[in-house]
Automatic annotation (TrEMBL):
Taxonomic lineage of the native organism: Bacteria, Pseudomonadati, Pseudomonadota, Alphaproteobacteria, Sphingomonadales
InterPro entries: Ald_DH/histidinol_DH (IPR016161), Ald_DH_C (IPR016163), Ald_DH_CS_CYS (IPR016160), Ald_DH_CS_GLU (IPR029510), Ald_DH_N (IPR016162), Aldehyde_DH_dom (IPR015590), LUC3-like (IPR044086)
Aldehyde dehydrogenase domain span: 17-466
Organism: Parasphingorhabdus flavimaris
Pfam families documented for this protein: Aldedh
UniProt-recorded name of the protein: Aldehyde dehydrogenase family protein
TM ranges: none
Stated family: Belongs to the aldehyde dehydrogenase family.
Entry superkingdom: Bacteria
Keyword annotations from UniProtKB, A to Z: Oxidoreductase
Active-site residues, record numbering mapped to chain: E242
Amino acid sequence: MVTQYKNLINGEMVGTSEVLDVINPANEEVIGQVPACGEAELNNAVSAARAAFKTWSKTPIEDRRKVVQAIAGVINENNDELFRLLTAEQGKPHAQAQGEIAGAAYMAGSQATLDMDDEINEDTEQRLSRTRRVPVGVVGGIVPWNFPVMMAVQKIAPALLSGCTIVLKPSPFTPLTTLRLAELIKDVAPAGVVNIITGEDSLGPLITSHPDIDKITFTGSTATGKKIMEGASKDLKRITLELGGNDASIVLPDANVEKVAEQLFWSSFTNAGQICVAAKRIYIHEDIYDELSAAIAAYAKNVKVGDGSQQGTAVGPVQNKKQYERVLELVQDAKDNGYKFLVGGDQKEEGIPGYYVPITILDNPPEDARIVAEEQFGPVMPLMKFSTTDEAISRANASEYGLAGAVWTANPDEGVRVAEQLETGTVWVNEFLHLSPFAPFGGHKQSGFGAEYGKEGLLEFTYPQVITVKKDNVPA
Ligand SMILES: NC(=O)C1=CN([C@@H]2O[C@H](COP(=O)(O)OP(=O)(O)OC[C@H]3O[C@@H](n4cnc5c(N)ncnc54)[C@H](OP(=O)(O)O)[C@@H]3O)[C@@H](O)[C@H]2O)C=CC1
Ligand SMILES: CCCCCC/C=C/C(=O)O
């Protein structure tokens, strides 16, 4: 008997007669069914959020903070149950799933400490002008399948703290952990403040163009981001878009090969490479290219790809069939063009269920190879050789994306000099995949706009309202 999950609407867990199957990518078996909501259920959720907004937006921020902290608390308390379910639906190995759940709780708890105090613009004898922040209203949150819990919480926490209410749609590929989380949220948040609904691919566009939703916060592909912008333009909804990336790492010649090989590997292969900020193009200086590429390949050969619930698995399957086929297509294109593979290049053994892509590392493919120029979003790592730092910077910047990047060097000052020339919203020097709840995270160019996290991320859920009092003109 397949477990039936319900949606959270107006403080109640509710189902629908139509349901959608959810598949475990490690074995392609159905592991749960979720409601297939349409317009009627969406309208109920939006009405509940609108009604709750009246009170929630007037609730003191200190009380809203407590609710966000309570959400962080229930996530932490239920890590053990949540991470197993997350592995089953998303595919990531247990340790990484545990990390995502703990990370989501940490991000929510930390964001709960943020403030949006009034700011004084002018305080003179003539006038007092201040900016206050007012919540935008009902938020529609749309999230993908690579970090379902982190992404859900990343939308819910700042929305609630700002005084907004939310209708959140998980990806139909990975809704289960979020719906379990919905049950936990039901017990700690007032009815209607958080609503979580699932449905077929018609649901996202319905949310985007719903006349009573005031803002969309979205994480996913650039192509979908553009559609959302279009759908939201009718009512001039506020939007925050966290989109794709084709993030470059630059390894300068003074980098210690032994120290960076393993870290570079995980900057590309964590979550089977399905991270917007994963390193997707690695530029290595020619002086250390042979040694470093050999060290990465040697490390890769001992990494186990398999079912994330099995001990020893370090890289799980790709999350869904569509993505699996896309990654295989890019690998096949590289083969057809005769590019050299240091590791991988073949498909999994025939007859084994699951969306497994063997670890794939390419040896110096050209810039215009599809596997370099496109966002792979899979367990794939092209290594490329460069001669001068300026050349590496210019190749790194030759992308329509601008999400993140990294520089690896024994000289952090030089790392910062290079970082400042990269056209991305985040750059790490001798670090990877670290996001802070206190720093704005967002893309340049076609990686989106707006920010999440930090005060900037919180303010995205608000309108500024400027109140000016003319002190010397009181008509008394
Ligand atoms: N930046 C990131 O973190 C991510 C980037 N990607 C990139 O996107 C590629 C495709 O992945 P895919 O799953 O198709 O990602 P999408 O961007 O299509 O999907 C992400 C979310 O958006 C929803 N959605 C899709 N179309 C619309 C629409 N027109 N209006 C409103 N919501 C919509 C999806 O729901 P539904 O499935 O029901 O349509 C899902 O909840 C990947 O290969 C990868 O390159 C993917 C995931 C995350
Ligand atoms: C271990 C890395 C955590 C990154 C979480 C943020 C991911 C964003 C995205 O893929 O959109």
